[in-house]
Write a structure and sequence with these properties.
single chain; alpha/beta; Metallo-beta-lactamase, Chain A; 2 domains; seven-stranded mixed sheet; five-stranded mixed sheet; globular
Length: about 290
């Protein structure tokens, strides 16, 4: 784990999100859990070497932020925004989260196969939220304040975790630092407002959902990525391009690499981003959204 401050630890080198924890005088608070089974077990052991785990907080419902909760059973309560709780490990027409997690085992964590539960065993108790809230929530542990700020956009239940005593904020996937941004079913207008809210914080360190630890200055880069995607697809719609043509011609693959372990998904990300925006923009203008390509 990388030491961001003497009390804040994260790792940016795993497939999946940047799982992190904060050490306090009264125990440890975990922010997101590793997707890979052996890494989740290792992180739990390392965190517990500093004291009992008081809370496990998930910043969003995407599988790479929550799958490892299974390996944190028996620790402190799991804390979820209502938007995370309602979507926790729920299969959709586009993605089965359990299958997506299993897909990474052979390539990124072969030893994890031995401790990977079957689907039924996993879903019997995946370690979902014990504390579910709406809006914002503030927790105090060992003299540290954990401000859970609702920052929807990337997902409806997205939160940022601000720890003022450490001058750090964990943004989840509101920020993809120096790697490809996944738009998926996001609400870009809300996402831009979330960036504004994070920009108002007085912090020295920003731990993103993916990519290297950075600062508030990087928020301008994330904003530019979102605006450039929207502008490019809006121009395509204005030019009369259909969905398939937009997907084929609008592409930002050269801007950043894909995060660790998912380089093979570059084309998928470009297709997903362009198609989802085309659907939203054409629907907003009264045209029916085309079926998936």
């Amino acid at each position: 784990m990388q030491s961001v401050t003497p009390a804040v630890f994260t790792t940016t080198e795993l497939r999946g999100c940047n799982p992190s924890y904060v050490v306090t005088s009264a125990g440890v608070v975990v922010v997101d859990t590793p997707q890979l089974p052996t890494k989740a077990v290792q992180m739990r052991a390392e965190a517990e070497s500093h004291g009992p785990i008081r809370f496990v907080i998930n910043t969003e419902h995407h599988v790479d932020h929550i799958f490892g909760n299974y390996y944190f059973k028996g620790t402190g309560p799991v804390v979820h925004h209502r938007g995370v709780a309602d979507n926790f490990m729920v299969p959709t027409p586009d993605l089965d989260p359990y299958d997506y997690a299993v897909e990474a085992i052979p390539t990124d964590d072969p030893e994890g196969a031995a401790i990977l539960p079957g689907r039924e065993e996993y879903y019997a108790d995946p370690n979902r939220g014990d504390i579910v809230f709406t809006g914002d929530l503030e927790l105090t542990v060992g003299g540290h304040t954990f401000r859970l700020l609702h920052t929807p956009g990337h997902t409806p239940g997205q939160i940022a975790v601000h720890v003022p005593e450490e001058r750090v904020v964990f943004t989840g996937d509101t920020v993809f630092s120096e790697c490809q941004t996944w738009l998926m079913t996001s609400d870009v207008d809300s996402w831009l407002l979330a960036l504004d809210r994070i920009a108002s914080l007085d912090v020295d360190y920003l731990v993103p959902g993916h990519g290297p630890v950075t600062t508030l200055a990087y928020l301008a880069n994330q904003r530019a990525v979102l605006l450039d995607w929207v502008a490019a697809v809006a121009d395509a719609v204005a030019a009369g391009w259909g969905r398939e043509e937009t997907v084929a011609r609008v592409n930002f693959a050269e801007r950043f690499p894909v995060d660790v372990g998912q380089g093979y998904m570059m084309d998928h990300i470009q297709t997903l981003n362009a198609a989802s925006l085309w659907d939203k923009l054409t629907a907003a203008h009264g045209a029916p959204a085309a079926t998936s390509v």
